[in-house]
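Take a minute with the sequence and fold tokens given here and flag any structure token that looks odd. Thanks in advance.
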Amino acid sequence: MECELFDRERTILHNLSKMPVLLLDMRDRDNVSEFLLHDLCSKYCFNLQKAAYLVDNPDFCCLRGVAGFSLDEAYPESTSVWYEADAFSDHMANSAFNNHVRRVNQCSVDAKEKTSLLKNIRAIANGLHFDDYDVCSWQLPNDNYGIVLYQKDDPTDNIIDQYLMNGLSLLSFCPLF
């Protein structure tokens, strides 16, 4: 059992360590956050059932969906999304869940007003049909905030908890279009 956990942890760290170079290779694409989110959610990394990446810009009072991942609509694992960029982009353009996330566009909620923020996130999660979810948020450049709603494929998988924030923070380096 302990050996399995070590192998899983090593696989996660190995995959995370490759992502900055892959991000640099895709820097001119307007959907690089879709590539990264898909890779982070794969069974070879955090093994998530579903994830939605949103950006909150309080200065413009705008909370917007950027990218979404659903295991049901995942790109075939026999190939890597990073090496079939055009095919992957076409796939994501036709992903119902990704498009549903990208249609999220509403007014920001004051982050200091925790009750309103939680209520707003709960409403978004319900609208995106999350069954059970957790939330990660962090500060982005220019006083924006990144928010990821996610649902684990295996709710008992706690090994990802110590690395998830480090992986999701890589989304901070993706351009927003």
